[in-house]
Design goal:
alpha/beta
Length: 397
């Protein structure tokens, strides 16, 4: 624990009365030595002007974990105590830390002793398998040949479908197709690892058309059943600008007799949009043939107002980070409100992703967002489950 002397004396009494084992460290250097071998499960630090180490703690733990990434110890849970720092500022710092894969909790200045004890009891009562390990996961060993084999092996690289709902009516509007890769050696590979590997080895186009083909098969079955649902798939700027991208997509849908209006192409923010003319050409061709075009992850990365106002999108998808934080963070709520107003002014359909709490759902609905998705509404479903559960999924319960 990193804290000032007054806090130390108080925590001594509280933790001793709770019969919890603990130790005090006076510097981040000393903490690094203590973390060696993974013996430390929880690190608690006060964040104040008197203890600047508190604000640096997540970055230092990340650095240590990267340096010792193949160790077998548990990555520690980090608990940040509000000192003389604004609570919202500390929450945002913790959110950024969690985006980096760290487990960071925040406790308000008021009642922080009981807050820390509640967190500690929850961590100590959790089964060991629930704790994050720094064990080498094998993703770094994946090669171009692994992904090529996965793309050619039926069922290895697949899609799951996350339902999207009209928030005003609660009716099912469609779904987003998300890539999943089950590798025989390392198991389920995170989507970000799959996409990064594809772009690194020039397989972004192959991955997209594989996903598009699987999505087209689902749309064909839905169309034969009289279902008018829309499915969205992700594409990066470099793949979208490939010379044969649009003709191939148009040809594939034409041969299957599919209604292009049922597919929305979401431009992701993971690759820079270097050639605006190329993007404009590709997106306009898609729109002329009936496909939808969405700007994904609005508010982060390369998703800028310049692209939104100059390219022919018909949908604005607001990044989940703002949606998740909006109910508790005024700054995130202001960005969310601005994005929704911008979508209305530009005549675009608005989609909020990352709806995970009833408070978040109520907020985006009251703010006029049209479409929503997130674990509160439904987790991603395997294709067979999505199709089999359509009667249940048609309306939010």
């Amino acid at each position: 624990m990193l804290a000032d002397r007054a806090a130390i004396r108080h925590f001594d009494r509280v933790l001793a009365s709770a019969c919890m084992e603990y130790c005090w460290v006076e510097s981040l250097a000393q903490l690094g030595a203590s973390l060696q071998g993974g013996a430390v499960g929880v690190v608690v630090a006060e964040v104040s002007g008197l203890n600047a180490d508190g604000i640096r703690l997540p970055a230092c733990v990340r650095q240590f974990c990267e340096r010792d990434g193949e160790g077998e110890g548990a990555q520690p849970v980090i608990v940040l105590l509000q000192g003389d720092i604004a609570y919202g500022t500390l929450v945002r710092h913790a959110e950024i830390s969690r985006d980096q894969g760290l487990d960071v909790r925040v406790v308000r200045r008021e009642g922080r002793m009981s807050g820390v004890l509640e967190i500690l009891r929850g961590i100590l009562s959790a089964p060991p398998k629930g704790r994050t390990k720094r064990r080498h996961n094998g993703y770094g060993s994946l090669k171009e040949s692994d992904l090529r084999r996965g793309l050619s092996s039926p069922g290895e690289v697949r899609i799951v479908l996350q339902p999207q709902y009209e928030l005003a009516s609660g009716l099912l509007a469609g779904a987003e197709a998300l890539v999943r890769w089950r590798h025989e050696r390392v198991g389920e590979v995170p989507a970000i690892v799959t996409v990064t590997l594809a772009h690194r080895h020039g397989l972004g186009d192959a991955l997209f058309h594989h996903v598009a083909g699987l999505t087209a098969s689902v749309l064909a079955r839905l169309q034969r059943a009289g279902e008018g649902l829309r499915i969205a798939i992700n594409v990066s700027a470099d793949v979208l600008c490939a010379p044969q991208f649009v003709p191939r997509l148009i040809g594939d849908f034409g041969r299957l007799g599919l209604d292009a209006k049922r597919l929305t192409v979401e431009l992701t923010e993971d690759m820079p949009a270097d050639d605006l003319l190329c993007l404009s050409t590709a997106l306009n061709l898609l729109r002329l043939h009936g496909f939808g075009a969405s700007m994904d992850d609005f508010g982060v990365g390369n998703s800028t107002p310049e692209l939104l106002t100059r390219l022919p999108f018909d949908e604005l998808k607001i990044d989940s980070r703002y949606v998740r934080r909006a109910a508790i963070d005024p700054a995130a709520r202001a960005v969310l409100a601005s994005a929704l107003q911008l979508s209305r002014d530009l005549g675009l359909r608005s989609v909020a992703e990352g709806i995970e709490t009833p408070e978040g759902l109520a907020l985006v609905t009251s703010m006029g967002c049209q479409i929503g998705q997130g674990f509160l509404l439904s987790p991603p479903l395997e294709v067979g489950e999505f199709q089999g559960e359509l009667p249940r999924l048609r309306r939010l319960s």
